[in-house]
Amino acid sequence: MTMKKNLLKDLSVRLDNLSISEALAQLCELFPGKVVFSTSLGQEDQVITEIIAKYNLPVKIFTLDTGRLFYETYDLLARTESRYKIKIKPYYPNTSTVEKLVGDIGINGFYESPENRKSCCYVRKVEPLKRALAGNSIWITGLRSEQSNNRSSMQKLEWDEGNQIMKFNPLLDWTMDEMLQYISDHKIPYNPLHDKGFASIGCAPCTRAIEPGEDPRAGRWWWEVSHKECGLHIK
To answer: Which among 7, 50, 122, 123 is placed 20 to 30 Å from 66, CA to CA?
Structure first.
């Protein structure tokens, strides 16, 4: 643990005061072939994808296709690959595991209890993520501290114990206004559902638009009174 803390500290010093593109380039140089970026095609992730493509950084990009995403998300995936001339590798849940899950709780059984919902998230998102991260050293995310209370305590560079990997959150201290301005300035493609009140876009059955003044995560698993995370970013 001491070795990990020292490595994180040394790396944090190296990355401090670097631009996002410079920091990503530094990580790619230090960990060749072992830097991956997980995109859900959200606005934050689109910003990072644009930076990776613009500077031709050797970062492997993947997404988690749960099988229950919005049509608009799939369309944006295709438009993004075409715009930036890149390939985003999809990771899918295990077929037999999904069949067992649906057999046990029903096709929409996640509405019935937090336990069922978390089981669905694990099968469709967490397990595929573990496969996508396996063998890599740096996991880049589009997390911002404003998004939720859980994320406000995160660091730009931190150790993810559950996945045994270093996580780099380059947009952590960006505000919503800064992000939207960057998207506008660079004409970055984004999901049209954002313009319809969807602050955070996940699986179609589990995401709704939010009302003005609502917490950005209120649209996720809105039927629950629970910690609004799926397990991907829990320390």
So the answer is: 50
